[in-house]
Write a structure and sequence with these properties.
The complex is a heterodimer of chains A (217) and B (422). With 217 residues, chain A is mostly beta strands. In chain A, the strands form 6 sheets. A 4-stranded mixed β-sheet of chain A has the order 8-7-15-16, with no helix packed on it. Chain A has a 4-stranded antiparallel β-sheet with strand order 12-11-13-14, with no helix packed on it. In chain A, strands 1-2 form a two-stranded antiparallel ribbon. With 422 residues, chain B is of the alpha+beta class. Chain B is 18% helix and 26% strand. In chain B, the strands form 6 sheets. In chain B, strands 9, 10, 13, 15 and 16 form a 5-stranded antiparallel β-sheet that branches. In chain B, strands 14-11-12-18 form a 4-stranded antiparallel β-sheet, covered by helices on one side. Chain B has a 3-stranded antiparallel β-sheet with strand order 4-5-8, with no helix packed on it. In chain B, strand 11 and strand 12 form a beta hairpin. Classes of the chains: A mainly beta (217), B alpha+beta (422). At the A-B interface, helix 2, strand 1, strand 2, strand 11 and strand 13 of A face helix 1 and strand 1 of B.
């Protein structure tokens, strides 16, 4: 009663005092800062968390193995650049920058936000398989973007159970992005192999014979 | 009087703003405020990250290597395992009375009186984290002729004493000069090597009737049992590089492998350890890496052998004794050099590189030196920006000097642009 009387004498109300306390409390409220500190607001307090250190970093072609129902699928984490663009990994060539596709859909997702995924289907005798990138240039040996009816070149991410690296081939080259480890017939783990974007270079077949070479630098 | 809803509205935000611990974060409350304490940061383990571990049960140092890849293939480590149980079993099973295998008693082993243990070699991939045995070389005080890295000199490792042989010859040996100084620490090192099998080049030259020399170049595959592997050795010497060929040898063959250093494990002893001591648990491990990223590997194009026949003039005999002798010797040298040039030109030695999208300039840029390389930025007391930049660079270089490895993003292998030649 004493407090109410004092506040009434000073022309203040209880509601005003409560608002003052609340505003001061809000001013002291913890907020996330730099360095990836996560602040979670709960009714019983503010929890502070940081991501697990030492596990890896969000690099181009960072593949993750997830489980959707009974299927194990591999998807690629988006990489956010300084300018805010979202890409999961790029292939650079003399003809420009190409975003690889999975079954025709760019790996960062289509216009509707659907992100493509790969389902590992089989492994080799050592219980290993690979997520690979394949680049198949046009007939002139250049990577070409689709224009009109021309489908352009193929820069695609595939899953293979053998031959993760193909350099000499009449049509395309292949390089591994990640290895899938299998256990008891199902994918059990995934190890990243490539940590940077790729540069594609094609070397024409020598005049004396042989096959063209496809290098990923 | 403050009613309950008002009280709850007041206390609720206060209670909700109380700091609580989360994942890898602890809250310490002190009279002057609250402190957030983060869990110690763990270093990201890059491919080929090597760790030395003391195995107490076997009293030895072993190393584990984070899985790395060459062309998407994970190397294996050939590890020996004792298959004692298999040799004891004999296919008769276990005796329920003794709990041991039938006929496993030494009385049934008439030859030696002991149960023979078989050693089997298994190819263990790196992602299974095999424990690799380490054999060390002496570096420092008890390793004459070795070079001690500066990093370890700062830790108290001393160079080997010099002039021991001269003093012995001259009879001026002073044992006090040859004794280790107080606080000396010993150093041991072991190399971990990546072994990549490949097709090798062979060369054979023959002397024809008219004195014409024909050199034939061919190819030889690696043994079918050879595969991409990793192994340890006290000191790595790249055996795939030959320095020349013997003029008298008509057949030359390249090594059927390429090798590169993965990392070097160092052990530093406690101060004042007796020279030539064996490393034990009291020694401190350090690792210097040579590889930081996964690799791709390719060999140069295999041109048809028929086009690589090299013909050159033979030595000409029959002028005069002394001249013939010297001329023949010179011709043999010339023959050797030409044969060697042909081998180098057609060598099938491959190269490793790291995918960085950087093309032929796959090296990460080095930081500008602290004293300013460009010269346009005068570092003096008036140019504050340049002075601060120089101080930052000097601090970075000091941090680098105190490490065995470069900082992230470490170092990448350059792509050999000769592979792009059609």
């Amino acid at each position: 009663m004493g407090m109410e009387r004092i506040m009434a004498e000073r022309g203040a109300s209880v509601e005003g005092a409560v608002r003052a306390v609340q505003s001061e409390t809000l001013a002291q409220q913890a907020r996330p800062g730099a360095g990836g500190l996560l602040v979670s607001k709960t009714p019983i307090g503010v929890a502070h968390s940081v991501a697990r250190q030492g596990g890896g970093f969000n690099h181009p072609f960072h593949a993750v193995l997830g489980k959707m129902g009974v299927k194990f699928v591999v998807s690629f984490l988006p990489v956010y650049g300084v300018s805010g663009n979202s890409r999961c990994g790029l292939v650079i060539s003399d003809a420009g920058v190409f975003e690889p596709t999975i079954k025709g859909t760019p790996i960062s997702g289509d216009a509707e936000g659907n992100v493509p995924m790969i389902e590992p289907t089989e492994s080799d005798a050592q219980d290993e398989s690979w997520i690979c990138i394949e680049a198949e240039p046009a007939e002139d040996g250049k990577l070409r973007k689709p224009v009109g009816d021309d489908a352009g070149s193929r820069v695609e991410i595939v899953h293979v159970a053998r031959d993760p690296m193909i350099v000499a081939h009449p049509k395309f080259g292949r390089a591994p992005l990640a290895m899938v480890l299998w256990a008891k017939g199902v994918p059990a783990g995934l190890i990243p192999i490539v940590h940077f974007n790729l540069r594609y270079e094609r070397v024409a077949a020598p005049a004396s014979g042989g096959l063209p070479k496809h290098y990923f630098l | 009087m403050i009613d309950a809803p008002t009280w709850n509205r007041t206390v609720g935000p206060v209670r909700g703003n109380r700091w609580r611990a989360g994942t890898r974060v602890n809250v310490v409350r002190t009279p002057v405020g609250q402190c957030l304490t983060l869990a110690p940061k763990k270093e990201w383990r890059h491919p080929w990250f090597t760790q030395a571990v003391w195995v107490g049960s076997e009293s030895k140092w072993v190393a584990t290597v984070q899985p790395g890849f060459v062309n998407g293939i994970c190397p294996v480590y050939r590890q020996a395992f004792l298959s004692l149980a298999q040799s004891q079993a004999n296919g008769f099973g276990i005796n329920p009375l003794s709990g041991e295998f039938y006929f496993s008693s030494p009385i049934f082993n008439k030859s030696t009186g002991q149960v023979a243990a078989q050693t089997e070699i298994f190819n263990v991939p790196l992602y299974a984290q095999p424990a690799m045995e380490l054999g060390f070389r002496n570096v420092g005080f008890d390793g004459p002729g070795s070079v001690v890295p500066d990093f370890f000199k700062r830790l108290g490792v001393q160079d080997a004493p010099k002039g021991l042989e001269e003093d012995l010859l001259n009879g001026t040996l002073d044992l006090s000069k040859q004794a280790p100084q107080r606080g000396n620490r010993l150093l041991r090192a072991c190399d971990i090597v990546l072994h990549q099998p490949r097709t090798a080049l062979t060369s054979t030259w023959t002397l024809g009737e008219l004195g014409q020399v024909t050199q034939e170049l061919g190819m030889r595959s690696a043994l079918p049992s050879e595969r991409l592997k990793i192994y340890t050795t006290p000191e790595f010497r790249d055996g795939s590089l030959a320095t020349g060929i013997d003029p008298a040898a008509r057949f030359f063959e390249e090594a059927t492998w390429d090798e590169t250093l993965v990392s070097t494990v160092f052990l530093v002893s406690p101060p004042d350890t007796e020279p030539y001591s064996e490393p034990d648990v009291t020694w401190q491990p350090f690792v210097r890496h040579s590889l930081f990223w996964n690799l791709l590997y390719a060999q140069p194009g295999l041109e048809p052998v028929a086009s690589s026949n090299v013909q050159f003039l033979p030595p000409l005999p029959g002028v005069s004794g002394l001249l013939i002798g010297s001329y023949v010797a010179a011709s043999l040298n010339d023959l050797s050099q030409q044969a060697w040039n042909a081998i180098l030109a057609h060598s099938l030695s491959g190269s490793f590189w790291t995918v960085t999208a950087g093309g032929s300039t796959a090296e990460f840029p080095e930081a500008v030196s602290a004293n300013g390389n460009d010269g346009s930025k005068g570092i003096d007391g008036l140019n504050k920006d340049a002075r601060l930049a120089a101080e930052r660079l000097a601090a970075q270089m000091a941090i680098r000097a105190a490490r065995l490895d470069p900082v992230f993003p470490y170092k990448a292998r350059r792509f050999d642009i000769s592979l792009l030649a059609a």
